[in-house]
Structures are given as structure tokens and as C-alpha cells.
UniProtKB/TrEMBL annotation:
Pfam families: PAN_1, VWA. The keyword Cell membrane does not apply. It comes from Exaiptasia diaphana (Tropical sea anemone). The chain crosses the membrane at residues 7-29. This is VWFA domain-containing protein.
Length: 292
């Protein structure tokens, strides 16, 4: 037996970010959306961008104790439209987002990034992953200032996902703002971005899962039901752990020693404690997400 309740195993993997499984993310996150309200967006696309944010939010378990959502609208200046201290339930968040006014103006992305840092500094949580999603359709009016503002966020351990749509954005700028080049994504138009909302939610969830992960045994006599992704025949639970680590959809696994069966799960005990079932011949392992 390679893994037991007395030890933690640290493994490192790399891989693509995007996954495809329309299930609520089991990771708790503080997440801020930067909503471009500049003149180039237009009122119709501005509505689509708000719909996009709402659709991404629906992928997460939102509450004051789990994932929390903030929204900053930016153009000539930036304003906090939704704070972490506001009521964190989906219906309230959706109402606030739909009521965000479209004002037009320039694209001072740096002001939005600076305002998001204020949000995290004032009310962010140190024990969860923190993410900023930047949305725009063109180059920042002050590109270098935006890159420097993004650096302040990244220096504080906050991940940035950059999303650009249309034909006027600067891919290089998006990549420089993002945590890394593969955290910058582009779309031909606002409709395409809206249709990709679930994939973006999955990407944020997978990125927050991270590349350095621990497994700890929740119980030596239990397994998880209702969230199984795949089954594998393995030699031991260490091999099962590797299979989970290399699958971006995996957040825990079951190991059945008598049959050497490995089940990968897209959930964990924190997200669905009622899915843990007692069984004498199984072991359930959850991931632990060390903050970076």
C-alpha cells in the first residue's frame, strides 16, 4: 500500500487547461470579472458579456463560504459593481450583473485591474484560490500600464485569465496580462465567447486545481458514488493517484484493493459529503489544493 492515512503524496503534472464536463466545480474560489464597458463594445455585445459572466458563475458553488464573485466594470475609469461582501447567491448576483449600466468610453484596462486588487486586498480570502477574468474586445488605451497593473495582481498570487473577442484585440497584450500565455484565449465575436462560457468555467476550475496537488485519505472504508468519470484496473493506489493527477477532470478517487479497481471522480467530499458510502473493501482519497 503506497498511500495511507498517515502520509501525503506530492506529485506534479502539466497539461492542457480546458476540459469538458458540465458539472459544478468543487473548488472554492474568489473570482473577479473585469467587464469592458468601452465604446467599442456596443450596447448589444455588452448584454452578451453580462450573460457570459452569469453563465460562468453558474458553474461554481457560490456562497459566502464557498466560491465568491466580484465584478468590476471599466472604461474611462473603473467601478466595483459586485463585491465579495455583497449577497453571494446566484439570483442576487445575476440581478446585480444584469443591472450594470453600459457607459462607453476608452479602454483603461489598468483601472479595472487596479480596482480588482482593491477588492482582493479589502475582502479577499487567503485560504482559497483567487482569479481575475479580464474581458475586452481591443487594445488597452494604456497597454503598458495594464501590464504593470496585472503584474501587481500576479505578484500577490492572483491568477489572471485574459479573454479577447472580435478583431481589434492584441493577443500579445492579452498574453502579457494573463498569468501565462496559455491563460489567454480569443474568440471571433461575443456570441462565440458566450457559447464558450461553460468551457471557461471548467478552465478556471482546472487551473485552480493547480499542478502541485496532494492526496489524503478521507476514509479507509468508504468510496464516492455518483461522480465517477472513468474506471481503471491498476496495480495499486499510487498508480490510481497518477491517473487522477493526469486527468484534469479528477478531484478525488476510489481504490478497491481486492479488485485493484481505480475510479476517478469529478467531485470531492467537501462538495458532496452525502456521496461518500461506507464500504469495508475500499478507500477514498481527496485532493488537497496548496495555495501558490
Amino acid at each position: 500500500m503506497w498511500i495511507n492515512t498517515n502520509y501525503l503524496i506530492l506529485l506534479q503534472v502539466t497539461g492542457s487547461v480546458f476540459i469538458s464536463c458540465a458539472i459544478v466545480c468543487p473548488v472554492s474560489i474568489d473570482m473577479v470579472f473585469l467587464l469592458d464597458g468601452s465604446s467599442s463594445i456596443g450596447s448589444n455585445d455588452f448584454i452578451k458579456l453580462k450573460d457570459f459572466i452569469i453563465k460562468v458563475v453558474q458553474y461554481f458553488r457560490v456562497s459566502s463560504q464557498e466560491s465568491r464573485i466580484g465584478v468590476v466594470r471599466y472604461s474611462d475609469n473603473a467601478s466595483i459593481e459586485l463585491s465579495f461582501t455583497d449577497l453571494q447567491i446566484i439570483s442576487s448576483i445575476e440581478k446585480k450583473i444584469r443591472n450594470i449600466p453600459y457607459l462607453g468610453g476608452n479602454t483603461y484596462t489598468n483601472t479595472g485591474l487596479d480596482k480588482s486588487l482593491i477588492l482582493f486586498t479589502a475582502n479577499g480570502r487567503g485560504h482559497v484560490h483567487r482569479v481575475v477574468i479580464v474581458i475586452n474586445d481591443g487594445k488597452s488605451s494604456k497597454g503598458e500600464a495594464a501590464i504593470q497593473s496585472a503584474k501587481k495582481l500576479k505578484d500577490n498570487g492572483i491568477r489572471i485569465l485574459s479573454l479577447g473577442f472580435g478583431t481589434s484585440f492584441s493577443l500579445l497584450e492579452l498574453q502579457q496580462i494573463a498569468t501565462s500565455a496559455d491563460h489567454a484565449h480569443t474568440y471571433p465575436n461575443a456570441v462565440s465567447m458566450l457559447n464558450s462560457a461553460t468551457s471557461v468555467g471548467e478552465a478556471v476550475c482546472a487551473a485552480s486545481r493547480g499542478t502541485q496537488l496532494y492526496f489524503t485519505s478521507i476514509s479507509e472504508k468508504a468510496f464516492m458514488i455518483n461522480h465517477v468519470i472513468t474506471n481503471h484496473h491498476v496495480t495499486d493506489d499510487l498508480e490510481c493517484a497518477f491517473k487522477c493527477l493526469t486527468n484534469k477532470r479528477c478531484f478525488s478517487f476510489n481504490y478497491f484493493e481486492s479488485t485493484q479497481m481505480c475510479q476517478l471522480n469529478y467531485s470531492n467530499k467537501q462538495s458532496d459529503p452525502h456521496a461518500i458510502i461506507d464500504d469495508e473493501k475500499s478507500i477514498h482519497y481527496d485532493m488537497v489544493f496548496p495555495l501558490r
